[in-house]
Amino acid sequence: MHNPTRKRFIPLLLLVAILFLNSCQEKVEPEISANAAVNNWIQDVMDQVYFWLDDMRKPISKESDPEDYFESLLFRPTDRFSAIFPDYQELINSLQGVSLEAGYEILLARESQANNNVIAFVSYTKKGSPAELAGLLRGDRIERINGERMTLDNYQSLLRKRSENHSVSAFRFNPENNSFQALQEINLSVVEIAEDPNFLDSIYVIDNEKIGYVVYHFFAPGTSQNPSGYNDKMDRIFENFKAEGINHLVLDFRYNGGGFVSSAINLGSLIAPNVTDRDVFSKRLFNSFLMGFEQFQNTESKFVPKSENLGPILKGNRVYVITSGRTASASELIINGLKPYMDVFLVGDITVGKNVGSIPLEDEDNKNNKYGILPIVFKDANKNGESEFSNGFIPNIQGRELINQGRLLPFGDTEELLLKLTLDHIRGISTPGARLEKWDREIVGSSFEKKVRFGQIIDSDENLKNQILNIRK
């Protein structure tokens, strides 16, 4: 017997079957949280580029805050410098010296063993900044922020007030009565500042010696608006030194915590004698995964030929470098990279000891992920393969600001402690450590350690980044 209902039912079954089969063939991607998406990217990157890949820690939950997740992977305490930032573009700006601030840097010391007072000594102010316009000077002592006295118990929380509009109570040294005198309270606003790392350059003629002096605060080629501006300015400084016929060079890196490799190569190329683009500035070692690829084996950075190079005119084939416990990374890269080519004479304090570097990385596939990371990716060595300076470089002549001198004299003042020690050595005058003053102070930090660029060797070379991204694909 004919059943019309059955005829209609069969096509319906076929349609359902086809739809079922199609749905089985399609891959349905499960929705994941924003944190998990960021952390998946972090894990993917770290599994590929992290220098201590074989020692990377077991991660915490993928739903964790990305900063906590990133931290959970790191090989601490060996890895002192890998870092994550909530905004990649702000990270790049900070590395270029662009930040929101009042424009003054400080050294922090406990006043004496007899009390818990903390004093912030102004180390320098930035050109055109609110701090400079308000009249703050290197050497001024700040004792109060927003009217509150700094002590060991509260100074860290008070210093955080510097990131917003604030006031400071400062004292300035009066040489007439040999004491510090109070200034009127200074109100400071915060603005966006693009700091030029080329802080000061001078030429001294002392006892028939012609000495070029450069104060360089961090390594950056320029800003986004002028990508090579800072390197170009350094070239002009050395062009002038060469034209003036200096025979000694002093690099002041006391506050230089690092920066971009490209600027280190540029500066090194202005100093090392008779180098060409065939001479090795540094060699690089990657992790066990990347070293399995040919393009990451035997990688070298070469000097750049510079007409402004003054290496051949430096007496004794020597360069002087002023250092401190804040001299790190790219500054140490210069010291280490020049050592095979000349005598690098250090004056100051033991450097930080950072021989590893980073690449700034962002998630180019997920526009909602604003994070930027600076994982340690490589280890640098010089031409001779020497790279073991993780305990820092020990100075030939030791001197410490605020410990061996009661106050900070202006940069370039020939009586300023570290410059004087250097100039005395050039002149053949001995200044034994036993003769140096020693003040009853305890150094408790500075504003420099809070900088994004502090302790960084940054390689932003697009070719290197593209090589890594191509491997990931």
Descriptive terms for the model:
Pdz3 Domain, alpha+beta, 2-enoyl-CoA Hydratase, Chain A, domain 1, 26% helix, 6-stranded mixed β-sheet, 25% strand, 11 helices, 473 residues, single chain, globular, 8-stranded antiparallel β-sheet
Mind explaining what this structure looks like?
The structure is a single chain. With 473 residues, the chain is of the alpha+beta class. Among the domains are: 98-192, PDZ domain (Pdz3 Domain); 195-355 and 379-437, Alpha-Beta Complex (2-enoyl-CoA Hydratase, Chain A, domain 1), CATH 3.90.226.10. It has helices spanning 4-25, 34-49, 66-73, 88-95, 130-133, 155-159, 229-244, 261-271, 330-338, 417-427, 462-472; strands at residues 83-85, 98-101, 104-110, 118-125, 141-145, 148-149, 166-174, 179-182, 186-188, 191-194, 198-206, 209-216, 248-252, 258-260, 280-285, 299-302, 318-323, 343-348, 356-358, 361-362, 372-374, 376-381, 397-398, 442-446, 456-458. Strands 3, 4, 5, 6, 7, 8, 9 and 24 form an eight-stranded antiparallel sheet that branches. Strands 11-12-13-17-18-23 form a six-stranded mixed sheet, sandwiched between helices. A hairpin with a 4-residue loop joins strand 7 (166-174) and strand 8 (179-182). The model has no long low-confidence stretch (mean pLDDT 92).
